[in-house]
Hints:
By secondary structure, the protein is mostly beta strands. Helices cover about 5% and strands about 45% of the residues. A 5-stranded antiparallel beta sheet has the order 23-26-31-28-29. Strands 2-3-4-5 form a 4-stranded antiparallel beta sheet, with no helix packed on it. Strands 6-7-8-9 form a 4-stranded antiparallel beta sheet, with no helix packed on it. The longest helix is centred in the first third of the chain and has 8 residues, at about 5-10.
Amino acid sequence: xxxxxxNLLLSGTMLLSTFIGCTxxxxxxxxxxxxxxxxxxxxxxxxxxxxxxxxxxxYVYASHDIFPSRGSDLMDKYHVFSSDNMVDWVDEGEILxxxxxxxxxxxxxxxxxxxxAYKDGTYYFYFPHPSGTDWNNSWKxxxxxxxxxxxxxxxxxxxxxxxxxxxIDPCVFxxxxxxxxxxxxxxxxxxxxxxxxxxxxxDGSLQQFNELDDxxxxxxxxxxxxxxxxxxxxxxxxxxxxxxxxxxxxxxxxENRGIILDPVTDSETSHGSIVEFKGDWYMFYHNAExxxxxxxxxxxxxxxxxxxxxxxxxxxxxxDGVPAVGPRSHATxxxxxxxxxxNYEEYSAKTEYPMNGSNISFGGGAVRxxxxxxxxxxxxxxxxLTGVNxxxxxxxxxxVIYASADSGAAFKVDASGDSAGDGYFLxxxxxxxxxxxxxxxxxxxxxxxxxxxxxxxxxxxGGANVSSVSVSxxx
Length: 475
């Protein structure tokens, strides 16, 4: 599908979360079911760290690009996602935020690429976070622990003895003998060191890997058979690539092997992880397919294949994603192909709200001109619907009819049922003119039961004039 057509189909149906309940009497894989890419659509996520734990599920620990984006300084609120079949993903919820870090910078934010490990009944969550206002020179690798893989994490402290200016993107690797190693780095410097038994201190001196070709950041280490692999992001201008190197030792020296992931869609940065799950190998990475904004990224996944000598074939980035490796199961993340094809036929109980209605208020520079709301390009502009019927509560489909001479705009949507408080991303592709009310964009939101719901749409991210909004429920 061509990019222009895809953008029109995507409209604002991006970034949504819906319950998908499926049952299967078969224990085999769901034939023909694909994950779609990106795989997480409820919030913007990046820097995926994938692990398979003893419960048989695969877990992805990701950073969180907050919308509307203010750039990487606003990143916060780590979420965990899990699956038992690679296509039905559950957002397990938030596990940590900057406010939970007692030694962190008072301004918050800067919760960058994390990782996780498991040892002796305890899950360890490793995250980079500055301790001072001078964030670029006060980085620390924090450690939080829990007896659960995706809940109840408590910050225990940070790892002492690491550089404060160029040690980010922690990766923790468990070797076959039960020893653990910490890797990280940024700004062209790559490091590795063995961890002590407490998983929070160093066992030996920090080693720098100067032999890596064009290292930038995003270290990921894993082992297959007798070969150690170190993947990382390079400095390719404007569009980082993922490279890798191999060694017969967890701390090198490393032999450069080349590029395994080309630049991703609409994002300068690249970051990923490689993991084996149920006999197949996968690469998780991020792109900006949903938002077309490199600071609003989404996690994707594709198959990874090895050559006979242990080298890795370049990963092919797809829209289809990967096939199911088990029966259908509970999910909260909507399939990407359902998003772009607008598969919402069940939402047929429709109520229309014209912009001249008595339940419409507006402000922040937005004005009513005739029957339309205009000036939504102004920062702080908004319009709000009150008294919206949410039925029994849960998911509702909101649809906006609009006109826009911009190439692409976006609204932030807030709704009464959004318990996470992150809001929703609504894309509004251009219609060719401010009076051309041919735009139609939809997305799922969350409402509370009853008729006391509020839906607020905030502008300032490109312009769009709105003629009406409709809310549809499942009858």
